[in-house]
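User: quick one, sequence for these tokens?
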């Protein structure tokens, strides 16, 4: 896929005698004179920690919960509840195994 350098719209291929990339939003046009191939590795976006970072699990309660990790099967976990969806949806409960540190969520 090629994008317009001016407006960022997806360029269309148009073949009116000479093949060219044409922007459907602005007047940009580029003649295709040879095979076009380019690979760009996109950077991964840094994801914010919705649970509050490294200190989020410092002062939370424990409960009886079975760890989903097959190798562990611990029977106790830290938990916290956070409202991550709209107000009319129930809170999401996040767990962290006290034995292996595996984290999971229950909505």
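Assistant:
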């Amino acid at each position: 896929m090629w994008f317009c350098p001016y407006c960022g719209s997806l360029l269309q291929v148009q073949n009116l005698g000479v093949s060219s990339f044409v922007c459907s939003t602005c007047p940009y046009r580029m003649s295709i004179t040879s095979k076009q191939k380019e690979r760009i590795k996109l950077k991964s976006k840094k994801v914010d920690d919705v649970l509050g970072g490294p200190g989020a699990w410092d002062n939370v309660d424990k409960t009886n919960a079975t760890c989903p990790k097959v190798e562990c099967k611990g029977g106790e976990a830290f938990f916290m509840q956070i409202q991550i969806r709209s107000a009319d949806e129930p809170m999401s409960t996040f767990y962290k195994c006290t034995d292996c540190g595996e984290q999971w969520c229950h909505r």
